[in-house]
TrEMBL record, chains A, B:
Catalytic activity: L-homoserine + NADP(+) = L-aspartate 4-semialdehyde + NADPH + H(+)
Organism placement in taxonomy: Bacteria, Bacillati, Bacillota, Bacilli, Bacillales
Protein name: Homoserine dehydrogenase
EC numbers, comma separated: 1.1.1.3
Pfam families: Homoserine_dh (PF00742), NAD_binding_3 (PF03447)
Length: 436, 436
């Protein structure tokens, strides 16, 4: 049996979960890994705050140096943010400690430098909890898909926004109301920006892209759109046309070591896609690779226990699995994400009261000027009507054409990509269609 | 770089896939594992059969001894069935070779003895492809959930039956017709018994139970029911009441090292369950564990490429991941699967033409004699009507009561468990309901 001293940085949601799981599952961990993990010191900001885990009290300190000197081999970083988390991790490496962290922002922004530093010090950096909470997605990519070339990843990587969209779709409640409720329930932060504006998902996508495509992309360059503009009317009509609207993180690589495209934003998934039924606080990642074809991993993307599971698994893996051979690569060419081609879902609201007949009329009008309009739907919304249609073969210029041709007082007009509808597929489908 | 000689047994679907993947992905494998796998000999039955992979021709033999003497370190067994596969594997162990296999029947029936033999010879036995095709479920349980106690597994483990049920539900076509079509498309074997009667799923469940619960259960003792009796009418009404009917493999353990219950059979999943939307040839496994809460893995459960992926990943892992510490345990106590308690879906067909009003009448009649009847539905079927209802708190004695009380000429009456409705949950729900 090996005894490993652990220094825990932070005793919030994640820190508390890790502390409790190491205690409650000590026996299984010992049996399966022959290793006993002992938390020696816990770094917090406010030593007087009442803690849920009472036996943690005597381990608290506000001095990081005390943690480093407590006879530890591993530091678990569960503070979050860039500083002081980053400096603490660097000092831990310099002291010869491995580091396990849940910090997606730091990993997205400085992961490569940190990996390099760890390598140069002969220690490891693991961060399973930073993407998808309890879902072992990084471990799966690293250890269980070694013979596969992953060429596409599609993820629902943020539980807060997925919860909000699920509630909006099922209850017809507008964004602001659901957000307020989510904040009350603890599913959303007081400042929801990181979640609802897509920053959190973009961090996770940057981390996934590094591991799966070997691609180094500055997170600020990932095109990003949040969910604030989505209305319940849009969700209802999308579903009626056979799609779910999700905040998707999407990454694709064109050829090995080739350029990539990455994007975070609301997109439509056909209801037959394995991610379309991932609802509420659940996260999921869909991986497409050359031999295995496709794999979907679903689980709870946040919360005390799932996140603690990922951290504790990383702790075990420091001693059970081979260290990463990952070599951070130079910056990768980022292609602009496809703005034209593929199908597009168009949704607009107008103060006019329209019916099915009007919708058919609009559709015929657009088809008459050559726009490839597919399924169409209409619905009653507060103060008027919502109109939706699928435009096959999208071109951004169509926005102006649409507004002019429809001749409606439009209070909002959104266009969203339909996932999986590439230009090539579409061309084939259109050709088949035109033969009918 | 290490060179590893591979002896391939069988050049059917799986063998061909493995041969091709080792070739097409040799570069990635070499880069990531520093190992070059070379197929030295291929054992087949008929050396004159035309093979898809032409460069395999010169490696064919019908003499297993020649394979063993070809300078190999690993045997990939892709023949299937008990003999001669078992003897070949034993001889491979004795010759000091590791073995990778996709053979679920052999692993389910003799896995523990084979593990023991491998251990005693200092070699490894890996079998990821035997459960869930390309889904890395065994690897996930073994390497990525080490600190978790898994207490429940629920799986859609057979692609043939899932395809048949999906087709029946979406097109309303009866079992026999869909089976015939599936056979034409190559989704079902000429002799479909192993799939449609649940044997294949039971093999996989036995393997999963061994790894996740440390439970050794003779596969013949796993209660097993197939899908032959399912009618399209049943599937339609189940969906209308909010459920999908799936052939589920279900395992549960009561306390660590405790007794288990295992069963394979059609069961209802609420449409909100992550497995309910797993359709067609896809397989999926839902794992519930104490820290991570729950994880669902979805992927293609069969086919040349996904299965080859699992075999080739195993080949890599022989040299990259730590060998299993699995110690086969003595036989585990198998509890009879719950026949009473929990909710039950009842479906019957009658030649009489019934309408919604009749359904309500039947429901009231059953409630009057104290049966806890919930959601009810009715539909037109060929030659009459289908009636369905959910009975909360099931008792097998109810079958007789039902038949007597309904007073209908019933041509079929089935009852199916509703997954996730334990007696305890139900008791709580009933209590809440009675207060309304
Ligand atoms: N919550 C989740 O479900 C989840 C899921 C995945 C990943 N993560 C990531 O995990 C990390 C931690 O998240 P969390 O939700 O556990 O945060 P949290 O609940 O806000 O806890 C943060 C902890 O860090 C301590 N802390 C903050 N600043 C500090 C400083 N300058 N020096 C010392 N200690 C400091 C706080 O001390 P006091 O207690 O004294 O205030 C607190 O204990 C973040 O990177 C987050 O993105 C969280
Ligand atoms: N097919 C799948 O998608 C799938 C998925 C998961 C697991 N599996 C498992 O993988 C295994 C192989 O399945 P498969 O579909 O590849 O089977 P298959 O297509 O029927 O191929 C069997 C191969 O084994 C050879 N063979 C049969 N008996 C032999 C004997 N006595 N001596 C030497 N060679 C013999 C055959 O030789 P000839 O070519 O000369 O006839 C053939 O090449 C089975 O255990 C199956 O359960 C299959």
């Amino acid at each position: 049996m090996e005894r490993i001293g652990v220094g825990l940085l932070g005793m919030g949601t994640v820190g508390t979960g890790v502390f409790k799981a190491l205690k409650s599952n000590q026996d299984v961990i010992l049996k399966r890994t022959d290793t006993l993990f002992e938390v020696k010191k816990i770094l917090v900001q406010d030593p007087d705050k009442k803690r849920q885990a009472e036996d943690a009290q005597s381990l608290l300190t506000t001095d990081f140096q005390q943690v480093l000197e407590a006879g530890i081999q591993v530091v678990v970083e569960a503070i979050g943010g860039l500083e002081p988390a980053r400096s603490f991790i660097e000092r831990a490496f310099e002291a010869g400690c491995h580091v396990v962290t849940a910090n997606k922002e730091l990993l997205a922004k400085h992961g490569s430098e940190l990996e390099r530093l760890a390598r140069s010090r002969g220690v490891q950096l693991l961060y399973e909890a930073s993407v998808g909470g309890g879902i072992p997605v990084l471990g799966t990519m690293r250890h269980l898909l070694k013979s596969n070339r992953i060429h596409r990843i599609t993820g629902i990587l943020n539980g807060t926004t997925n919860y909000i969209l699920t509630e909006m779709a099922s209850k017809g409640t507008p964004f602001d109301e659901v957000l307020a409720e989510a904040q009350k329930l603890g599913y959303a932060e007081a400042d929801p920006t990181s979640d609802v504006d897509g920053f959190d998902a973009a961090y996770k996508l940057a981390i996934l892209a590094r591991l799966s495509f070997d691609a180094e992309v500055p997170v600020t360059e990932i095109p990003r759109e949040g969910i604030r503009e989505i209305t319940p009317g849009e969700l209802v009509l999308a579903r009626r046309l056979g799609y779910a609207v999700k905040l998707l993180a999407r990454g694709e690589q064109y050829g090995e070591k080739g350029p990539v495209s990455l994007a975070v934003g609301p997109a439509l998934l056909p209801l037959t896609h394995s991610l379309s039924s991932v609802d509420g606080i659940y996260n999921a990642i869909h991986l497409e690779a050359d031999v295995v074809q496709d794999i979907t991993l679903v689980g709870q993307g946040a919360g005390e226990e799932p996140t603690a599971s990922a951290v504790v698994e990383d702790l075990c893996n420091l001693y059970c699995l081979p260290p990463s051979k990952f070599i951070p690569s130079e910056e990768t060419l980022l292609l602009p994400s496809q703005h034209s081609g593929g199908s597009r879902f168009i949704y607009l609201e107008t103060a006019q009261h329209l019916d099915e007949g009007d919708a058919e009329g609009l559709k015929r009008r657009l088809q008459a000027i050559g726009l490839p309009v597919g399924e169409t739907g209409i619905s009653r919304v507060t103060d008027g009507s919502g109109v939706a249609f699928i435009l096959r073969r999208w071109d951004p210029l169509y926005r102006g054409v649409l507004l002019a041709e429809l001749g409606l007082e439009v209070s909002c007009l959104t266009d969203r990509p339909v996932h999986g509808s590439s230009t090539v597929e579409e061309a084939v489908r259109l050709e088949a269609g035109s033969a009918v």
